[in-house]
Amino acid sequence: MAAARSLEAAGVTALVLDRPAPTDHPRGVPAFEAVTLAALLARTTSRIGLVAADSALFGYPYNTARRLASLDHLSGGRSGWRPVTSPDDGDEAVYGLAVGGPDEQRSRAAEFVEVVLALWDTWEPGAELPDRAAGNFRDDTQIHPIDHRSTYYRVHGPLDVPRCPQGRPVIVRAVRTPDELAMAARFADVVEPWCANEAELAETVTAVRAAAGRAGRSPTELLVLPALGWRAGPEVVSIGERDLSQRLGEVVTSTGADGATLVGPGTPEWAEALAGDVLPALRGLLARPRAGATLAENYGLRRSTETDRSVA
Question: What are the pLDDT digits (tens) for 211-224?
Protein backbone atom coordinates (compact mmCIF):
# COMPACT_ATOMS: atom_id res chain seq x y z
CA MET A 1 0.00 0.00 0.00
CA ALA A 2 2.87 2.36 0.75
CA ALA A 3 4.33 1.71 -2.71
CA ALA A 4 1.02 2.53 -4.39
CA ARG A 5 0.67 5.77 -2.47
CA SER A 6 4.24 6.82 -3.35
CA LEU A 7 3.66 6.19 -7.05
CA GLU A 8 0.33 7.99 -6.98
CA ALA A 9 1.90 11.03 -5.33
CA ALA A 10 4.57 11.05 -8.05
CA GLY A 11 1.91 11.24 -10.79
CA VAL A 12 2.10 7.67 -12.13
CA THR A 13 -0.95 7.00 -14.31
CA ALA A 14 -1.48 3.34 -13.42
CA LEU A 15 -0.10 0.54 -11.30
CA VAL A 16 -0.08 -2.91 -12.94
CA LEU A 17 -0.53 -5.77 -10.47
CA ASP A 18 0.89 -8.66 -12.43
CA ARG A 19 0.70 -12.36 -11.74
CA PRO A 20 4.12 -13.35 -10.33
CA ALA A 21 5.99 -16.24 -11.89
CA PRO A 22 6.45 -19.34 -9.68
CA THR A 23 10.18 -18.56 -9.45
CA ASP A 24 9.36 -15.25 -7.75
CA HIS A 25 8.53 -17.20 -4.61
CA PRO A 26 11.12 -20.00 -4.34
CA ARG A 27 9.96 -20.93 -0.85
CA GLY A 28 6.37 -21.26 -1.90
CA VAL A 29 5.09 -17.99 -0.37
CA PRO A 30 2.00 -17.05 -2.43
CA ALA A 31 1.24 -13.56 -3.67
CA PHE A 32 -2.12 -11.93 -3.18
CA GLU A 33 -4.62 -12.41 -5.99
CA ALA A 34 -4.38 -9.31 -8.17
CA VAL A 35 -8.04 -8.26 -8.41
CA THR A 36 -8.52 -8.60 -4.65
CA LEU A 37 -5.33 -6.63 -3.98
CA ALA A 38 -6.48 -3.92 -6.41
CA ALA A 39 -9.76 -3.62 -4.49
CA LEU A 40 -7.79 -3.08 -1.28
CA LEU A 41 -5.56 -0.47 -2.91
CA ALA A 42 -8.65 1.33 -4.24
CA ARG A 43 -9.50 2.20 -0.62
CA THR A 44 -6.12 3.77 0.10
CA THR A 45 -5.62 5.67 -3.18
CA SER A 46 -7.71 8.19 -5.10
CA ARG A 47 -6.16 8.85 -8.54
CA ILE A 48 -3.82 6.09 -9.70
CA GLY A 49 -5.18 3.43 -12.05
CA LEU A 50 -5.26 -0.15 -10.79
CA VAL A 51 -4.66 -2.77 -13.49
CA ALA A 52 -5.03 -6.37 -12.34
CA ALA A 53 -3.69 -9.43 -14.15
CA ASP A 54 -6.33 -12.14 -14.38
CA SER A 55 -6.51 -15.31 -16.44
CA ALA A 56 -8.35 -15.46 -19.76
CA LEU A 57 -7.85 -19.23 -19.89
CA PHE A 58 -8.99 -20.55 -16.52
CA GLY A 59 -12.25 -19.69 -14.82
CA TYR A 60 -15.40 -18.24 -16.37
CA PRO A 61 -15.83 -15.02 -18.38
CA TYR A 62 -18.93 -14.09 -16.37
CA ASN A 63 -17.07 -14.18 -13.05
CA THR A 64 -14.16 -12.20 -14.49
CA ALA A 65 -16.52 -9.58 -15.94
CA ARG A 66 -18.41 -9.06 -12.68
CA ARG A 67 -15.28 -8.96 -10.48
CA LEU A 68 -13.56 -6.36 -12.68
CA ALA A 69 -16.76 -4.35 -13.08
CA SER A 70 -17.10 -4.35 -9.30
CA LEU A 71 -13.50 -3.14 -9.03
CA ASP A 72 -14.29 -0.29 -11.41
CA HIS A 73 -17.18 0.80 -9.18
CA LEU A 74 -15.12 0.46 -6.00
CA SER A 75 -12.26 2.50 -7.48
CA GLY A 76 -14.44 5.17 -9.08
CA GLY A 77 -13.51 4.22 -12.65
CA ARG A 78 -9.81 3.45 -12.16
CA SER A 79 -9.72 -0.25 -12.99
CA GLY A 80 -7.92 -2.13 -15.74
CA TRP A 81 -7.48 -5.73 -16.78
CA ARG A 82 -4.35 -7.43 -18.04
CA PRO A 83 -5.61 -10.72 -19.55
CA VAL A 84 -3.22 -13.62 -18.90
CA THR A 85 -3.39 -15.72 -22.06
CA SER A 86 -0.76 -18.41 -21.53
CA PRO A 87 -0.48 -20.88 -18.64
CA ASP A 88 2.39 -21.25 -16.21
CA ASP A 89 3.82 -24.72 -15.65
CA GLY A 90 1.37 -26.77 -13.63
CA ASP A 91 -1.65 -24.50 -14.17
CA GLU A 92 -3.65 -27.11 -16.06
CA ALA A 93 -3.25 -29.58 -13.20
CA VAL A 94 -4.01 -26.98 -10.53
CA TYR A 95 -7.18 -25.77 -12.24
CA GLY A 96 -8.19 -29.15 -13.61
CA LEU A 97 -8.58 -27.83 -17.15
CA ALA A 98 -6.63 -28.69 -20.28
CA VAL A 99 -6.25 -25.63 -22.54
CA GLY A 100 -4.41 -27.27 -25.45
CA GLY A 101 -1.42 -26.00 -27.40
CA PRO A 102 -0.51 -22.38 -28.21
CA ASP A 103 -3.01 -22.01 -31.07
CA GLU A 104 -5.90 -23.30 -28.99
CA GLN A 105 -4.83 -21.14 -26.05
CA ARG A 106 -4.90 -18.01 -28.21
CA SER A 107 -8.31 -18.92 -29.62
CA ARG A 108 -9.74 -19.74 -26.18
CA ALA A 109 -8.36 -16.53 -24.64
CA ALA A 110 -9.66 -14.37 -27.49
CA GLU A 111 -13.17 -15.75 -27.06
CA PHE A 112 -12.91 -15.29 -23.28
CA VAL A 113 -12.05 -11.60 -23.70
CA GLU A 114 -14.78 -11.18 -26.33
CA VAL A 115 -17.38 -12.50 -23.89
CA VAL A 116 -16.15 -10.29 -21.04
CA LEU A 117 -16.34 -7.19 -23.25
CA ALA A 118 -19.84 -8.11 -24.40
CA LEU A 119 -21.00 -8.58 -20.80
CA TRP A 120 -19.68 -5.14 -19.82
CA ASP A 121 -21.86 -3.66 -22.56
CA THR A 122 -25.08 -5.42 -21.48
CA TRP A 123 -26.10 -2.35 -19.47
CA GLU A 124 -26.72 0.73 -21.59
CA PRO A 125 -25.77 4.13 -20.17
CA GLY A 126 -28.65 5.20 -17.95
CA ALA A 127 -29.93 1.68 -17.26
CA GLU A 128 -29.24 2.13 -13.54
CA LEU A 129 -32.07 4.07 -11.87
CA PRO A 130 -31.36 4.58 -8.15
CA ASP A 131 -34.86 5.79 -7.33
CA ARG A 132 -35.18 4.70 -3.70
CA ALA A 133 -38.58 6.32 -3.20
CA ALA A 134 -40.18 4.38 -6.05
CA GLY A 135 -38.05 1.28 -5.53
CA ASN A 136 -36.70 1.39 -9.09
CA PHE A 137 -33.04 0.50 -9.38
CA ARG A 138 -32.77 -0.60 -13.00
CA ASP A 139 -34.46 -0.11 -16.33
CA ASP A 140 -34.79 -3.61 -17.75
CA THR A 141 -35.51 -2.25 -21.23
CA GLN A 142 -31.90 -1.01 -21.31
CA ILE A 143 -30.30 -4.25 -20.09
CA HIS A 144 -29.71 -6.94 -22.70
CA PRO A 145 -28.50 -10.56 -22.79
CA ILE A 146 -25.63 -11.44 -25.10
CA ASP A 147 -26.62 -15.02 -26.02
CA HIS A 148 -23.01 -15.90 -26.84
CA ARG A 149 -22.58 -19.39 -28.31
CA SER A 150 -19.28 -20.33 -29.86
CA THR A 151 -16.40 -22.79 -29.60
CA TYR A 152 -15.59 -22.64 -25.89
CA TYR A 153 -18.35 -20.71 -24.12
CA ARG A 154 -22.14 -20.53 -23.94
CA VAL A 155 -23.09 -17.38 -22.04
CA HIS A 156 -26.56 -15.86 -21.95
CA GLY A 157 -25.99 -12.87 -19.67
CA PRO A 158 -26.69 -10.09 -18.93
CA LEU A 159 -24.21 -9.05 -16.25
CA ASP A 160 -25.65 -8.46 -12.77
CA VAL A 161 -23.39 -5.43 -12.13
CA PRO A 162 -24.36 -1.96 -13.43
CA ARG A 163 -22.38 -0.34 -16.22
CA CYS A 164 -18.87 0.66 -15.17
CA PRO A 165 -18.10 4.33 -14.38
CA GLN A 166 -15.70 4.37 -17.36
CA GLY A 167 -17.91 2.20 -19.57
CA ARG A 168 -15.58 -0.75 -19.14
CA PRO A 169 -12.21 -1.32 -17.49
CA VAL A 170 -9.11 -0.49 -19.53
CA ILE A 171 -7.62 -3.54 -21.29
CA VAL A 172 -3.83 -3.69 -20.95
CA ARG A 173 -2.08 -6.31 -23.09
CA ALA A 174 1.54 -7.35 -22.75
CA VAL A 175 3.11 -8.47 -26.05
CA ARG A 176 6.18 -10.68 -25.81
CA THR A 177 5.93 -12.59 -29.11
CA PRO A 178 4.60 -11.81 -32.62
CA ASP A 179 1.83 -14.36 -32.08
CA GLU A 180 0.36 -12.17 -29.32
CA LEU A 181 0.13 -9.09 -31.51
CA ALA A 182 -3.16 -9.87 -33.26
CA MET A 183 -5.09 -10.21 -30.02
CA ALA A 184 -3.55 -7.02 -28.65
CA ALA A 185 -4.53 -5.08 -31.78
CA ARG A 186 -8.05 -6.46 -31.62
CA PHE A 187 -8.92 -5.86 -27.96
CA ALA A 188 -6.37 -3.78 -26.07
CA ASP A 189 -6.56 -0.15 -25.02
CA VAL A 190 -2.92 -0.20 -23.92
CA VAL A 191 -0.24 -2.42 -25.50
CA GLU A 192 3.01 -3.15 -23.63
CA PRO A 193 5.69 -4.55 -25.97
CA TRP A 194 8.49 -6.46 -24.23
CA CYS A 195 11.62 -6.32 -26.40
CA ALA A 196 15.28 -7.22 -26.07
CA ASN A 197 16.73 -3.99 -27.48
CA GLU A 198 15.81 -0.52 -28.73
CA ALA A 199 15.86 -1.44 -32.42
CA GLU A 200 13.45 -4.29 -31.82
CA LEU A 201 11.29 -1.98 -29.73
CA ALA A 202 10.92 0.59 -32.51
CA GLU A 203 9.93 -2.15 -34.96
CA THR A 204 7.36 -3.51 -32.53
CA VAL A 205 5.78 -0.10 -31.91
CA THR A 206 5.33 0.26 -35.67
CA ALA A 207 3.96 -3.28 -35.92
CA VAL A 208 1.40 -2.64 -33.16
CA ARG A 209 0.04 0.43 -34.91
CA ALA A 210 -0.11 -1.37 -38.26
CA ALA A 211 -1.93 -4.33 -36.70
CA ALA A 212 -4.46 -1.97 -35.10
CA GLY A 213 -5.15 -0.47 -38.52
CA ARG A 214 -5.71 -3.92 -40.01
CA ALA A 215 -8.18 -4.61 -37.19
CA GLY A 216 -10.15 -1.55 -38.25
CA ARG A 217 -9.14 0.60 -35.31
CA SER A 218 -7.99 4.19 -35.18
CA PRO A 219 -4.50 4.86 -33.76
CA THR A 220 -6.17 7.06 -31.12
CA GLU A 221 -7.97 4.02 -29.69
CA LEU A 222 -4.87 2.46 -28.18
CA LEU A 223 -1.58 3.46 -26.58
CA VAL A 224 1.79 1.77 -26.96
CA LEU A 225 3.74 1.83 -23.67
CA PRO A 226 6.88 -0.33 -23.97
CA ALA A 227 7.96 -2.29 -20.91
CA LEU A 228 11.32 -0.97 -19.68
CA GLY A 229 13.11 -2.52 -16.71
CA TRP A 230 14.27 -0.24 -13.91
CA ARG A 231 16.02 -1.29 -10.73
CA ALA A 232 16.94 0.72 -7.66
CA GLY A 233 20.43 -0.04 -6.38
CA PRO A 234 24.11 0.88 -6.49
CA GLU A 235 24.37 0.36 -10.25
CA VAL A 236 21.64 2.97 -10.84
CA VAL A 237 23.09 5.46 -8.39
CA SER A 238 26.45 5.25 -10.13
CA ILE A 239 24.81 6.21 -13.44
CA GLY A 240 22.86 9.08 -11.93
CA GLU A 241 19.09 9.34 -11.75
CA ARG A 242 18.82 12.32 -14.11
CA ASP A 243 20.98 10.60 -16.72
CA LEU A 244 18.77 7.54 -16.44
CA SER A 245 15.63 9.63 -16.88
CA GLN A 246 17.15 11.30 -19.91
CA ARG A 247 17.87 7.89 -21.44
CA LEU A 248 14.36 6.62 -20.77
CA GLY A 249 12.91 9.73 -22.41
CA GLU A 250 15.14 9.25 -25.45
CA VAL A 251 14.03 5.63 -25.83
CA VAL A 252 10.35 6.58 -25.76
CA THR A 253 10.82 9.45 -28.20
CA SER A 254 13.01 7.54 -30.66
CA THR A 255 10.68 4.54 -30.87
CA GLY A 256 7.50 6.57 -31.43
CA ALA A 257 5.88 5.17 -28.29
CA ASP A 258 3.24 7.00 -26.24
CA GLY A 259 5.10 6.57 -22.96
CA ALA A 260 6.60 3.72 -20.98
CA THR A 261 5.75 0.99 -18.53
CA LEU A 262 8.49 0.83 -15.89
CA VAL A 263 8.96 -2.71 -14.64
CA GLY A 264 10.43 -3.61 -11.27
CA PRO A 265 9.87 -5.60 -8.06
CA GLY A 266 7.24 -3.19 -6.75
CA THR A 267 8.68 -2.99 -3.23
CA PRO A 268 8.20 0.20 -1.18
CA GLU A 269 11.93 0.94 -1.54
CA TRP A 270 11.75 0.57 -5.32
CA ALA A 271 8.65 2.75 -5.54
CA GLU A 272 10.11 5.47 -3.33
CA ALA A 273 13.36 5.61 -5.34
CA LEU A 274 11.41 5.74 -8.58
CA ALA A 275 8.98 8.37 -7.33
CA GLY A 276 11.58 10.52 -5.64
CA ASP A 277 14.36 10.57 -8.23
CA VAL A 278 13.56 9.24 -11.69
CA LEU A 279 9.96 10.37 -12.28
CA PRO A 280 10.41 14.09 -11.51
CA ALA A 281 13.13 14.30 -14.16
CA LEU A 282 11.23 12.11 -16.59
CA ARG A 283 8.14 14.33 -16.39
CA GLY A 284 10.09 17.12 -18.02
CA LEU A 285 10.85 14.90 -21.00
CA LEU A 286 7.45 13.35 -21.61
CA ALA A 287 3.86 14.57 -21.63
CA ARG A 288 2.47 15.81 -18.34
CA PRO A 289 -0.07 13.54 -16.60
CA ARG A 290 -3.72 14.17 -17.39
CA ALA A 291 -6.30 14.97 -14.73
CA GLY A 292 -9.32 12.97 -15.85
CA ALA A 293 -11.98 11.34 -13.71
CA THR A 294 -11.25 7.77 -14.93
CA LEU A 295 -8.25 5.71 -15.95
CA ALA A 296 -9.35 5.81 -19.61
CA GLU A 297 -9.47 9.61 -19.44
CA ASN A 298 -6.10 9.81 -17.71
CA TYR A 299 -4.61 7.69 -20.50
CA GLY A 300 -6.25 10.02 -23.04
CA LEU A 301 -8.05 7.12 -24.72
CA ARG A 302 -10.66 7.88 -27.35
CA ARG A 303 -12.94 4.90 -27.46
CA SER A 304 -15.07 4.24 -30.51
CA THR A 305 -18.56 3.00 -29.70
CA GLU A 306 -18.81 1.51 -33.18
CA THR A 307 -15.70 -0.68 -33.11
CA ASP A 308 -16.60 -4.23 -34.15
CA ARG A 309 -14.45 -6.66 -32.16
CA SER A 310 -16.27 -9.78 -33.35
CA VAL A 311 -13.87 -10.29 -36.24
CA ALA A 312 -10.20 -11.13 -35.64
Answer: 999 999 987 789 99
Say if CB 185 and CB 175 are below 8 A apart.
no
Does the structure show a pLDDT above 90 at 36? yes
User: Helix 34-44 to helix 2-9 angle, to the nearest 10 degrees?
Assistant: 60
Give domain status of residue 64, yes or no.
yes
Q: Alpha helix (H) ranges present in the chain?
A: 2-9, 34-44, 61-75, 91-95, 102-120, 181-187, 198-214, 234-239, 241-255, 268-273, 279-283, 295-299
Cβ–Cβ < 8 Å for 57, 68 = no
Query: Whole-prediction pTM value?
Result: 0.88
CA nearest to 109, candidates 47, 57, 63 = 57
Full residue range of the structural domain in which residue 28 is found = 2-85+169-290
CA-only gyration radius of the chain, Å? 20
Question: Residue 222: which of 296, 289, 163 has the closest Cα?
Answer: 296
The number of folded domains in the chain is 1
